[in-house]
TrEMBL record:
<dbReference type="GO" id="GO:0046961">
    <property type="term" value="F:proton-transporting ATPase activity, rotational mechanism"/>
</dbReference>
<dbReference type="InterPro" id="IPR002490">
    <property type="entry name" value="V-ATPase_116kDa_su"/>
</dbReference>
<protein>
    <recommendedName>
        <fullName>V-type proton ATPase subunit a</fullName>
    </recommendedName>
</protein>
<dbReference type="InterPro" id="IPR026028">
    <property type="entry name" value="V-type_ATPase_116kDa_su_euka"/>
</dbReference>
<dbReference type="Pfam" id="PF01496">
    <property type="entry name" value="V_ATPase_I"/>
</dbReference>
<feature type="coiled-coil region">
    <location>
        <begin position="90"/>
        <end position="131"/>
    </location>
</feature>
<dbReference type="GO" id="GO:0007035">
    <property type="term" value="P:vacuolar acidification"/>
</dbReference>
<keyword id="KW-0472">Membrane</keyword>
<feature type="transmembrane region" description="Helical">
    <location>
        <begin position="419"/>
        <end position="443"/>
    </location>
</feature>
<feature type="transmembrane region" description="Helical">
    <location>
        <begin position="634"/>
        <end position="651"/>
    </location>
</feature>
<feature type="transmembrane region" description="Helical">
    <location>
        <begin position="544"/>
        <end position="562"/>
    </location>
</feature>
<dbReference type="GO" id="GO:0051117">
    <property type="term" value="F:ATPase binding"/>
</dbReference>
<keyword id="KW-1133">Transmembrane helix</keyword>
<keyword id="KW-0375">Hydrogen ion transport</keyword>
<keyword id="KW-0175">Coiled coil</keyword>
<feature type="transmembrane region" description="Helical">
    <location>
        <begin position="582"/>
        <end position="601"/>
    </location>
</feature>
<keyword id="KW-0406">Ion transport</keyword>
Length: 816
């Protein structure tokens, strides 16, 4: 950790002190800023009764919030433009908050103006583009109609021979021209309508005008940019002929309702050509103007992006500083700010140096003052962890943050958690796969730590060292079980057993004979595939589970002794630790002893029978189940001790607590009262009421009764719970064996390359999906439960709260 800090100690949290700071107002900002850089002081809110708007620096926080809003606006604009803000500013320019505020206002105004002008130009460009399309499509329609009319007129003239025919028009052109009342004036409207609304548009027009319109629609090949929305939309050009003003008004309203954009069209052919030429020229000029605006906007955003991270950090720091200053209270003279906070004892000297430096740098006439306050308030819990231990500490903290300076199970979790996982996952082939996958995260941690990963990937990356330890222990237990994808290997020498004859005909009936010393390490490979494999491994793993469980529960009870000794709590030592150790080891410690003796002697004694009749018939003779001389008398003594330990746990402690309470308040004893977990709440109440609150004996006794019953029943259920180590190990081994024998070996037996390839693919998929993913998650969760429930409930209170210092390093992105 360096010369300034003591060595890391995970067993007890760092000693903490409540300190008071008295800071002159002129140096308050710089002082808090330096303390944020240091990151070793957790401020208390001395203005909790005030709303955010009533606090001293509400205006400054509002100003920082407005600057943060502008920066988020810039970030959104950069994202839309496809630019990514630089992670590190290209050029570090010293700038204060006031100058930054002015600069952000100017940049926002300029960017908003550029956006508004760009939108207007883009809208005008889209309208001109639509107008050009309408001019072309409608012009084509009129030209085609005129051509057909001319051709038709010539055809009629050529066919007329002076005789009337059925195709001869009833009214000649001359007659219509001579009588103006007979002429019909048709108006027309043209424009663009969204293609998905074109059918409804046509239907509504027909119904509204009762069919007195002529409508033509032509599809536009390419999607066009809609002037209103700015998005690409597939549209149709429409041309509708009508007669009368009423019909025109109806058509205009329908066009407005359907979002159809209308454009003017001149029937004069020469005028059409001139308008198209003017529109094309305007489009070219607008395109040039838009491109120039986009280039200017892109350069502006690039300039913002180069400094964005620096500005963002500055604004977030300023806002955090003012939030912290709002937690300080003004003294009566309104010239100083008074604050309180928690800090580690080792940090006092560093904080004093920071305060002196802030006073010098701010040219303050008076320096800040720091003094230690004495309080009965429980301090926060602070463990200094590194990248390896932090993930294991998070596993413990997920259950509950340790009470101040109580024994931290995280120290033992570093070893016991991956080991219990490996007991359930033991296969050194699977362990190697898990190790290789984890090494990818470990070796590339510098690169990956600076990237944004997905939720699951982020979680795996955070626990990479936990998984690394799980993989290493899985290789170790896999070597003990002698399983490599369920296949045994003679890694540590030949098997200790051999067939009775050369052809091994009677190996499956009579059995094997021992020809050499026992296999050097782990399970002898000869057990694999025999009729007795499952009973042998079941017996082995079940007994191992009980031994591991009893050992870990004993460790938990021993840690409760260290807690009681550390907090000078004699009652918990004499009336909790000692009877709990006696009860647990009188029953399940004795069972563990029997298991070891049976392994050592090779006895055929039935342990089930011994344990059952230890309760049902403690005076009966063990007979052939006796493992050692004096076992009968030992069982009777242990049973008696187990029975005595229950009232030992239950009765004395509440009465002694009551006696201490009475002596303390009657003045007979001025010794400090030992604060136990059960009496802590009552003592706090008595201190608050100046000692006039009565001792709640009934509540203390009921609490102790519940605690005793929980431990007695838990000793049985927790020991049984450790049998999950055996069950999951068996399930993992059998699944691995099934995949190997029923998939890989079965495919190999067909002597077909295609079937073999398919078998290998299925085997790999099953191994990865089931054994390396699902089984890993299952074993992880079961190991988690064993630590949280079976281990930690023996000693761990977990009712503390974390130390959250004011630190700029811990500032995250704020989404307001």
């Amino acid at each position: 950790m360096g010369g300034c800090c003591p060595p890391m100690d995970l067993l007890r949290s760092e000693p903490m002190q409540l300190v008071q700071l008295i800071v002159p107002i002129e140096s308050a900002h710089l002082t808090v800023s330096y303390l944020g850089d240091l990151g070793l002081l957790q401020f208390k809110d001395l203005n909790a009764d005030k709303s955010p708007f009533q606090r001293t620096y509400a205006a400054q926080i509002k100003k920082c919030g407005e600057m943060a809003r502008k920066l988020r606006f810039f970030k959104d604009q950069m994202m839309k433009a496809g630019l990514t803000p630089s992670i590190k500013s290209i050029s570090q320019v010293d700038i204060n908050v006031d100058d930054l505020e002015i600069k952000l206002v100017e940049l926002e105004a300029e960017l908003v103006e550029l956006n508004a002008n760009g939108e207007k130009l883009q809208r005008a460009y889209s309208e001109l583009m639509e107008s050009k399309i309408v001019l072309q499509k409608v012009g084509e329609f009129f030209h085609a109609a005129q051509s057909r009319a001319t051709a038709r007129h010539r055809e009629i003239e050529s066919q007329s021979t002076g005789e009337e025919s059925i195709n001869t028009p009833l009214l000649r052109d001359q007659e219509m021209a001579s009588d103006p009342s007979k002429q019909i004036k048709l108006g027309f409207l043209c424009g663009l309508v969204p293609r998905d609304k074109s059918i409804a548009f046509e239907r509504i027009l027909f119904r509204a005008t009762r069919g007195n319109v002529f409508l033509r629609q032509v599809e536009v090949e390419e999607p066009v940019i809609d002037p209103a929305s700015g998005e690409k939309v597939e549209k149709n050009v429409f041309l509708v002929f009508y007669s009368g003003e009423r019909a025109k008004n109806k058509i205009l309203k329908i066009c407005e309702a359907f979002g159809a954009n209308r454009y003017s069209f001149d029937e004069d052919l020469g005028r059409q050509t001139q308008v198209i030429s003017e529109v094309t020229q305007s489009l070219t000029e607008l395109k040039t103007t838009i491109d120039a605006g986009l280039l200017h906007r892109g350069n502006l955003l690039q300039t913002i992006g180069d400094q964005f991270e620096q500005w963002n950090q500055l604004v977030r720091k300023e806002k955090a500083i003012y939030h912290t200053l709002n937690m300080l209270s003004l003294d009566v003279t309104k010239k100083c700010l008074v604050g309180e906070g928690w800090c580690p004892v080792f940090a006092i000297k560093q904080i004093q140096e920071v305060l002196q430096r802030a006073a010098i740098d701010s040219n303050a006439q008076v320096g800040a003052i720091i003094q230690v306050l004495h309080t009965k308030e429980m301090p926060p819990t602070f463990f200094r962890t590194n990248k390896f231990t932090s993930a294991f500490q998070e596993i413990v903290d997920a259950y509950g943050v340790a009470r101040y300076q109580e024994a931290n199970p995280g120290v033992y979790t570093i070893i016991t958690f991956p080991f219990l996982f490996a007991v359930m996952f033991g296969d050194w082939g699977h362990g190697i796969c898990l190790l290789l996958a984890t090494l990818v995260f470990v070796l590339r941690e510098k690169k990956l730590s600076g990237q944004k990963l997905g939720d699951i990937t982020e979680m795996i990356f955070g626990g990479r060292y936990v998984i690394l330890m799980m993989a290493l222990f899985s290789i170790y237990t896999g070597l003990i079980y002698n399983e490599f994808f369920s296949v045994p290997f003679e890694l540590f020498g030949p098997s200790a057993y051999a067939c009775r004859d050369l052809d091994c005909k009677d190996a499956g009936t009579v059995g094997l004979i021992k020809v050499r010393d026992a296999y050097a390490f782990g399970v002898d490979p000869v057990w694999h595939g025999t009729r007795t494999e499952l009973p042998f491994l079941n017996s082995l793993k079940m007994k191992l589970s009980i031994l591991l469980g009893v050992a870990q529960m004993n460790l938990g009870i021993i840690l409760s002794y260290f807690n009681a000794n550390f907090f000078k709590n004699g009652l918990n030592i004499w009336f909790q630790f000692i009877p709990q150790m006696i009860f647990l080891n009188s029953l399940f410690g004795y069972l563990s002893l029997l298991i070891i003796v049976k392994w050592w002697t090779g006895s055929q004694a039935d342990l089930y029978h011994i344990m059952i009749y230890m309760f049902l018939g403690p005076t009966e003779d063990l007979g052939e189940n006796r493992l050692f001389p004096g076992q009968d008398r030992l069982q009777q003594v242990l049973l008696l001790l187990a029975l005595v330990s229950v009232p030992w746990m239950l009765l004395p402690k509440p009465f002694l607590l009551k006696k201490q309470h009475e002596e303390r308040h009657q003045g007979h004893s001025y010794a400090q009262l030992e604060i136990t977990d059960e009496s802590f709440f009552q003592l706090e109440q008595s201190h608050d009421s100046h000692g006039h609150e009565e001792f709640q004996f009934g509540e203390v006794f009921v609490h102790q009764l519940i605690h005793t019953i929980e431990f007695v029943l838990g000793a049985v259920s927790n020991t049984a719970s450790y049998l999950r180590l055996w069950a999951l190990s068996l399930a993992h081994s059998e699944l691995s064996s099934v995949f190997y024998e029923k998939v890989l070996l079965l495919a190999w037996g067909f002597n077909n390359v295609i079937i073999l390839v398919i078998g290998i693919i299925v085997f790999i998929a099953a191994t990865v999906g089931v054994l390396l993913v699902m089984e890993t998650l299952s074993a992880f969760l079961h190991a988690l439960r064993l630590h949280w429930v079976e281990f930690q409930n023996k000693f761990y209170e977990g009712d503390g709260y974390k130390f959250f210092p004011f630190s700029f390093v811990l500032l995250g992105d704020e989404d307001e």
